[in-house]
Amino acid sequence: MAVQRRIPRQHRGERRVAGLLDAAASVLAEFGYDATTMSEIAERAGAAVGSLYQFFPNKEAVTRALRTKYSQQIEELWQPLFDRSSTLNLDTFVDRLLDLTIQFANEHPAFLALLDAPPAHHHSGEIRKRFCQLMARFFLLRKPRMSNAKALRMAAVSLKLVNGMLVLYKDAKRSEKPHIVQEFKFILNCYLNRGIS
Prior knowledge:
Low-confidence stretches: none
Order of helices and strands: HHHHHHHHH
Distance between the termini: 42 Å
Number of strands: 0
Number of helices: 9
CATH topology of the domain at 66-196: Tetracycline Repressor, domain 2
CATH class of the domain at 66-196: Mainly Alpha
CATH architecture of the domain at 66-196: Orthogonal Bundle
Shape: elongated
Largest sheet: none
């Protein structure tokens, strides 16, 4: 498995990596995953390709770093929803969860482009596990008698539904996008209301 080659220890190195990832996001958003190259990323960043390879040995490593960055941002975006578990009804929770996710996707086009990356380049097991645990805690607070295993299973299914919405949303015509979101709100609402109510 490809990993980030060099960990920057100084602010200048961290800024360089942030600039390289911003350039990668820009290229991904413009050309899509398959057409994005390391050379194009370096050129967009105004850096020598060798400088890019110092930190990322290949496109897979860039992809993983961007996914990790986006996952952290989405977790921060979602966290207030989970913190309000005792005051939000499920319909409002689902509406806000999917609206926030779509808002993030619209503001970060590379996030949707990364959906075309090969499965091996997708989230690490640790990131998936963290998201499942976050959502499972929400379910357990809503229904304390639910088993931990069921809460984790429901969380995994819910996250797959969110991912499925993003896949369809990415390729849909502009006029169809709001309808895709509404359909998935209905599906997730039905699923959670049956499992938690």
